[in-house]
Fold:
Amino acid sequence: MLRIRVLTILLFVACFAAVPLCAQLGKTVIVAAGSEVDHQLSDISAATDPAAKLKLIDAFSAAHHENDLQILADEQYVNYYLNAKQYDKVFEYGDKLFALDPDNFSNAVNMVRAANEKGDSDHLFAAGEKASGILQKFKAQPPPGGTSPEAWKAQQQQKLEPIKDNQDYIEQSLMNAAFQQKDATKKAALLVRFANLFPDSPNAGQALSAAAVTYQQAQNRPKMIETANSGLAKDPDNIGMLLLLADDYSEKGEQLDKAEAYAKKAASLCDTAKKPEGVSDADWQKQINLQKGLAFSALGQIDLQKKLNPAAVDSLIKAAPLLKPNAGVYARNQYRLGFAYLNLKNTAGAKQAFTDAASVDSPYKGPAQDKLKGLGAARAPAKKAS
Structure:
C-alpha cells in the first residue's frame, strides 16, 4: 500500500525549507506536527479493527470539508477499501480523489491495483490512462521561473525515479489484461490502446506487434496493415512486422516491390539480430531460422507473382529446410514451390514439392493431394482403341 503524501511541519521555518522534493506526483498536503489533524491521522493509522478504522475515517471526513484535507480523507478511504477488497468502493472514492487532485499518481496506482485484482479491464485501462496522462503532463511541464532546464530535468528525474516500479506495475498490468482477452478484436484494440498510452515504453512496440498479429488472426486485414505500419514507424527494424507485411502483400499480389524490400530487410536483420536475455541458444536459433525461412518464402511468392519462376524456385528451396519444423508454413512453401516447378514445365520437381506439401497436416494437405492426382492423370498413357 502506498503511504499518504504528508509532509510534517517542523518547528522551525528554516528546517521546513530544507524538506526535499516529495516522491509522489500530485498535491502535497502539509499537516502540522502535533495538530488535531495529525493526531486523527495517527489514530486512523494505528487502528487495527477494520470497523473501528472505517469509523475514524468517516469522522475525519465529516470534520474536514476543506479540499486539501478531503484529499487525505479520500486517500484513506481508497486505501481502506483496497485492503478490504471492496473494489467498487475504491473506484468511487478514487474518482472523488481525482476530482480534488487530478494529478495524484498514487491514486492512479491504487485504481489500477483494484481493477487488476477485480479483473476489470475497463476500469484498469481507464486508470492506466489516468496514470499515463499524469506522467506525460508532468514531463511536459516547463522549468519554473529561475530554474535552468538542466536543473529542472534533474528535479523531474528525482521525482520520477521513486515511482518507476509503480510505472512498471501499471504497464505490466495493462499488457497482461490485454493478452488475457478472449475476444480477438478487443484484445488487439487494447494492445493498440496500450501503445498509444505509453508511446515511450519498451513494451509499446511489442504491443503493436501482437495487435497486428491478432488482427490478422481475426481476418481484419485493414486494421492489421494499419497496426503493422504503426509498429514499423516506431521500429523500422521490427523483423516480425516486416515479415507480416511482406507475407500479406506477397500473398495478395499487392505492393510487390515494397514486399520484396521488407522481406530482404528481414532476412538481412536475421543475420545480425542479438539474442535477448533469458532465451536459450536453441530457442533463439529456432526463431531466427523460422523468420529467415518466412522471408525467403515471401521472396519466392513475390517472384511467382512476377512470373520470375527460376528465382522463385531458388528462394523457396532456401526456405524449405528452415521452415520444415513448422508444418503449416513448410507445407505452404512446398505448395508454392510446386507451382513454380509447374510453370517451368518441371513435372518431377512439381510432384516432389506437392508430395512434401501433402506429407504434413496443414490446410495445404488436400489441395496438394488434388494437384498430385491431376499430375498423375496428365501423365497416364492413353488407352489403345480396340
Observations:
- The chain has a mean pLDDT of 89.
- The longest helix spans residues 281-305.
